[in-house]
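Our consortium's second objective concerns turning raw sequence data into structural hypotheses that experimental partners can test. To show how far this objective has progressed, the report includes one record in full. It was chosen at random from the queue rather than selected for favorable results. The single chain below, 170 residues long, was entered without modification.
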Amino acid sequence: MGLSEKVVIITGAARGLGQTYARRFAELGAHLVVCDLRDCAETVARCRQAGGGTIINISSLAAVYGMPNGLHYTTSKAAVIGLTRGLAREVGRYNIRVNAVAPNVVDTQAAGEFFGDKKDKLMQATTSQMSLRKPVQADDLFGTILYLASDQSCCTTGQTLMVDGGTVFL
């Protein structure tokens, strides 16, 4: 899938999932723009100038499944889903698609920092609840993100796709 004509805007590309996606899109020849989430209005303006575009937000399974002792995280990721849906309705008329990907716990440095010495036990417990019984790695999400970024998803907007190994079925 050629992306040499696509501009990909990535927030949070300094580490973790954002860094993985920036690397993978660069390998596919996309033109990268790295920005902060606060630049959302500017991103929409750029997409409008270009005659359309795609915005892909990263939420979390925690937003629909819940996460004990992590209400701040669960709430923020639920807000990402609300932002995705509202923005999709707002900017669809400009040929801008907005979707989200909601992964299960992903084995990243950030997960290690968040869960500390409980990370390995949490990953094991999470994996045991998945239909596929496979820990989610950052690269496992890229196919879904690539699909949403491509023209093959031209009629997909306002959606949240779960990449969770079969933990939640919506």
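The partners drew two points from this record. The chain is about 45% helix and 15% strand. The helical segments are 16-27, 40-50, 62-65, 71-91, 109-115, 119-128, 142-149. Both points have been shared with the crystallography group to help prioritize constructs.
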